[in-house]
Each structure stands twice: as structure tokens, then as C-alpha cells.
């Protein structure tokens, strides 16, 4: 989802010397592991550096990076013995295991790991650097108008709209934008629109951009008015002056000179000279189109903010209401057998193990709600799982799991199911630092219908202006219609006349991701992929809304 990230290998240091009469001739092999699987597949190899224990590799690996997936990598160092697929035991210099997210989430996208795997030996270390391929991130905003277009409708004027085509390497064209229709005029002014430069010209500033002018018809058989061609470079000149294009009728389109909308334009260069007149008698043009404005701004990415030092702070809230069933009973949603984790533990691990790569201290606040807690048996909706009110943070995801299992043994499951207290708790923390250096992700795992819907909607509306996102995972067989209302994909959440500033809630039922064969690793990978996919866009929407630019990473 974040495009190709450039993963550059920096030199392993102080490698084992395996050659008798000279230094080693090392090569590094990159293996990748499929999502939810155990199999390692070779992805590529560096070049061989002769006679050195501190090789400086030039070859880089280009990987697709997905925030929502745990992308495990393995680097094997060895001696070069020809093009054999595997490194023999006598050639092995050590290996390192790392997740791509760990490299990107590390300081300045730079991570050093020790090489291990040779008993009794220090194998040296490997230094990794991740860079995001920019691939033309600029976004263009432009506005156009037209003058004296051909009249196509019998009883009225035309209803014009524009269709933009990007030219491809093979000479074909691909539609990349359509404007809105302006009704009943031969002199339309279209609304400004925004388009990524890569969509307009694939990053090639001199590539032909072809623009067709159509008259809209209700039955879909839109009438072709004419065409003109330009390029990104020519369009960009409108930053300092108006640019006027003549719209010419399209020869070469077959009967009537009108192409079907969406068809590839003719396979011929479409760089037309706006001043060149058609040879037909008295024909001048089919009107003109003027580029009124053209501006360019750079689009920041999720990786820009992470590399600039933005930390993701992960908080967990777990449902301890009585509807989950007694934890000691196999029918309980909290029941963990010696052979497999409970649905709660699976959801926690699935999300937490991805997010922890972007949190430098690996300390995660963890709360429970809906239980009677010792010593006085009062109902609480935000009790710390580690029983430490002053510091509810647990060390790593394993620490959260340990505290969760300990709480099951000490609290009494009760009710009701209230979300607002823990949302307000995290929102209070998020409100303390709003400069973009911290972003909070709250994971709520629940089995049932929410009891405090009005208060929760109010809390979400307030939280939507803060640097935070909320993930809700529903476990068990209950119906979760109310949760869909909180997931503002269709209708933005509102409370007392106020609408959420952003969509910050993602809800999914865990049962939709359970693997039929019982493969828990695959179930967790599927769940994480879906619930975390919106986090990068939600983070970017907060930064954009509040005009926060990423900090420049130290060189």
C-alpha cells in the first residue's frame, strides 16, 4: 500500500574469516517469508566482494512495503562458491532475522543486527538501511475552462466535459481523469481538480497527455467535440501564464470522427501544434480550452513521518464482561487451552506484533473494562491489567499477554460493556502531544453489544481531532450491527450536532478471519492485514488536517 520501499544493504562488519590463505569473499542472500507461512524463499543476492571481512555492497533490494503485514526477512551471509542455490555449511558466515517494519521504524530507518548461527563464534553484524522510492510523489491541482465549443445538442447548447489520457510505453492510452459535466454551455468553467503526477504521466514530464472534449448525453452515447495534446512540462508553464489550446476534430476515428468513450486513441503521436489549422474549408477549430491555473505540491507519505521520528503508541483495552463466560470453561472466549490461544490473545498478538516495530520503547499501556476488581470489588471500565495504576504499561506484547492472563485469575467478569472511559483515557494522553511526533492506536477487543453508545460516539468525535486511531475487534458469535455505526466508512460519526473531523475507527469481527484449517498464524495475518490497513491513511489525514510536515531525518 505504501509502494516500493528501497531496502539498501550496508556492509556487514567483522565477518568470520573462512578462507585459509586470504580474507573471505562474502555474499549476502535475502530470503522472504510468505504472510502467515513458515516457508522461506530466496528473493535475491548481493554482488560478491573479494577478499574482505567488511564488504560494502552496492546492489539494493527493492521490496513492496505493507504497514499492515509482518514482513519477515532473513539475511544469510556466506562465501561465494559459484551459482549454487544454497550456501553450504562450510560456506556459512551467519544470518540475521528482521521484520521490514523494524528497519523502517528504527531511528533514521537504519538498523544493525548481529549475525548468528555459527556455534561458539562471533559472526559480526549486518547494517540495513531502508529508503522509500519517491517515484514522483508530486500532486498537481489545475483548473481549465473552454470557449466557443462546437454545439452538439439539437435543442440546447452542449454539456461539455474533459477526459484526460496518459500515454503508455506501447503507444496505447489510459484514461486517468474525467472532469465533471457543465450543463448547457459552450463556455464551461470546470472545477479545479487534483491528480498525482505519476497518474498523469508516470513521472515522465515529456510524455504525451491527450485530452478529449465530449458533449454529455443521458444515454451514455457522448458526442465527441474534439481533442488536443500536451505534456506535463507544457502544462506546468501555466504556473506563470495562461495556456490556450485549440480543440480540433479528431481525424482517424472512423465513421463520424467520434471515438467511443474509453477507447484507446489512435496509435499515432498526438502532439498537435495548436496553431496548425485543419485543411478543411472554413474550419478553424472546435473551440479552445484554457488552462487557468496549475500548481504542484509534494505529497508526504507514511514512511516520511516514521523516518522523521513519529512514534506509534499502542494501547490495548480488553472486554472482561460476564458474557464472555467463565475463563476456566472451554466454552469461554477467554479460555486458553495448552494447545492454542484464546480469540482475545490471538487478536492482541496479531495487531500488536505489527505495531510494536514502530514504538521505540516497546512499552504498551493495557487496560480491562467491565469487571469487578479487587480489593473492594468495584466495577471498573479502565483498570490496568498489570495492577499498577501509576504505570499501566507492559513490556512488549508478551508482557501484555502475561498481564491479561494474570487479570483473568484475579478479577470477576461482570459488565456492562462501556467503551467511552478507555477512549477518553487514551484521548487525554494523545491531547498532551499534538505536534505529530506521537500517534496513538487504541485496540479494543470485545465480545458484545456496546452499552454506552451515546457516550462512545461523543468520545470518538472528540478523539477525531487528536492524533489517534481506534481499532475494534469483535470476538465470538454476537451480532455487531452497532459497531458498524462507529466505523465511519459510510456515514461520519456524529454526536449532538458535531461530526467527527476524521474517520478514525475500524471495526472487524474476528470470525471473518479464522482459517478453516485451524492455522492460527494465518488467521492472525489476515486479521492484522485488514484492521491495520487504514492506519497509514488515518495518520496522514491527521497530519494534513493540522498542516504538520514530517521532520527531516538526520543524514
UniProtKB/TrEMBL annotation:
GO biological process: cellular response to calcium ion
Molecular function GO labels: calcium-dependent phospholipid binding; metal ion binding
Keywords for this protein: Calcium, Metal-binding, Repeat
C2 domain boundaries: 1-115, 118-245
Stated family: Belongs to the copine family.
Every VWFA domain range: 313-514
Record's protein name: CPNE9 protein
CDD domains: C2A_Copine, C2B_Copine, vWA_copine_like
Assigned GO CC terms: plasma membrane
Pfam families for this protein: C2, Copine
InterPro entries the UniProt entry points to: C2_dom, C2_domain_sf, C2B_Copine, Copine, Copine_C, VWF_A, vWFA_dom_sf
Gene: Cpne9
Amino acid at each position: 500500500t505504501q509502494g516500493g520501499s528501497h531496502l539498501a544493504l550496508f556492509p556487514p562488519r567483522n565477518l568470520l574469516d573462512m578462507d585459509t590463505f586470504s580474507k573471505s569473499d562474502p555474499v549476502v542472500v535475502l530470503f522472504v517469508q510468505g504472510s502467515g507461512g513458515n516457508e522461506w524463499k530466496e528473493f535475491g543476492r548481493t554482488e560478491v566482494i573479494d577478499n574482505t571481512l567488511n564488504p560494502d555492497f552496492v546492489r539494493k533490494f527493492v521490496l513492496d512495503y505493507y504497514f499492515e503485514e509482518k514482513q519477515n526477512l532473513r539475511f544469510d551471509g556466506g562465501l561465494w562458491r559459484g551459482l549454487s542455490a544454497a550456501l553450504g555449511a562450510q560456506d556459512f558466515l551467519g544470518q540475521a532475522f528482521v521484520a521490514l517494519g523494524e528497519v523502517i521504524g528504527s531511528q533514521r530507518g537504519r538498523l544493525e543486527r548481529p549475525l548468528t548461527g555459527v556455534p561458539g563464534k562471533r559472526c559480526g553484524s549486518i547494517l540495513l538501511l531502508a529508503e522509500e522510492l519517491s517515484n514522483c510523489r508530486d500532486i498537481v491541482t489545475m483548473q481549465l475552462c473552454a470557449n466557443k465549443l462546437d454545439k452538439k445538442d439539437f435543442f440546447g447548447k452542449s454539456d461539455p466535459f474533459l477526459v484526460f489520457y496518459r500515454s503508455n510505453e506501447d503507444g496505447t492510452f489510459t484514461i486517468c481523469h474525467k472532469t465533471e459535466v457543465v450543463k448547457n454551455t459552450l463556455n464551461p468553467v470546470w472545477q479545479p481538480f487534483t491528480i498525482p503526477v505519476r497518474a498523469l504521466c508516470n513521472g515522465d514530464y515529456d510524455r504525451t497527455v491527450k485530452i478529449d472534449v465530449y458533449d454529455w448525453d443521458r444515454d451514455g452515447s457522448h458526442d465527441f467535440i474534439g481533442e488536443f495534446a500536451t505534456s506535463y512540462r507544457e502544462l506546468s508553464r501555466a504556473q506563470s501564464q495562461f495556456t490556450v489550446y485549440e480543440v480540433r476534430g479528431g481525424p482517424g476515428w472512423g465513421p463520424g470522427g467520434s471515438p467511443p468513450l474509453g477507447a484507446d486513441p489512435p496509435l499515432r503521436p498526438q502532439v498537435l501544434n495548436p496553431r496548425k489549422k485543419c485543411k478543411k474549408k472554413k474550419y478553424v477549430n472546435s473551440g479552445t480550452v484554457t488552462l487557468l491555473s496549475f500548481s504542484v505540491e509534494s505529497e508526504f507519505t507514511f514512511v516520511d513521518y516514521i523516518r522523521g521520528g513519529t512514534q506509534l503508541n499502542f494501547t490495548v483495552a480488553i472486554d472482561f464482561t460476564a458474557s464472555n463466560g467463565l475463563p476456566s470453561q472451554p466454552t469461554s472466549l477467554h479460555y486458553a487451552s495448552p494447545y492454542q490461544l484464546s480469540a482475545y490473545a490471538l487478536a492482541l498478538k496479531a495487531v500488536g506484533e505489527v505495531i510494536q516495530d514502530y514504538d521505540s520503547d516497546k512499552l504498551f499501556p493495557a487496560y480491562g473494562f467491565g469487571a469487578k476488581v479487587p480489593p473492594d470489588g468495584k466495577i471498573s471500565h479502565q483498570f490496568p491489567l498489570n495492577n499498577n495504576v501509576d504505570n499501566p504499561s507492559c513490556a512488549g506484547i508478551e508482557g501484555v499477554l502475561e498481564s491479561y492472563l494474570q487479570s483473568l485469575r484475579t478479577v470477576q467478569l461482570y459488565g456492562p460493556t462501556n467503551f467511552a472511559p478507555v477512549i477518553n483515557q487514551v484521548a487525554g494522553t494523545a491531547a498532551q502531544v499534538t505536534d505529530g511526533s506521537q500517534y496513538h492506536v487504541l485496540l479494543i477487543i470485545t465480545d458484545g453489544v456496546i452499552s454506552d453508545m451515546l457516550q462512545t460516539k461523543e468520545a470518538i468525535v472528540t478523539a477525531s481531532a487528536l492524533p489517534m486511531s481506534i481499532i475494534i475487534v469483535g470476538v465470538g458469535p454476537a451480532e455487531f450491527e452497532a459497531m458498524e455505526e462507529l466505523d465511519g466508512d459510510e456515514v461520519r460519526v456524529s454526536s449532538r450536532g458535531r461530526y467527527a473531523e476524521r474517520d478514525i475507527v475500524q471495526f472487524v469481527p474476528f470470525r471473518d478471519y479464522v482459517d478453516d484449517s485451524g492455522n492460527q498464524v494465518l488467521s492472525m495475518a489476515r486479521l492484522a492485514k485488514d484492521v491495520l490497513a487504514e492506519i497509514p491513511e488515518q495518520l496522514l489525514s491527521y497530519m494534513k488536517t493540522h498542516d504538520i510536515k514530517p521532520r527531516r531525518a538526520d543524514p
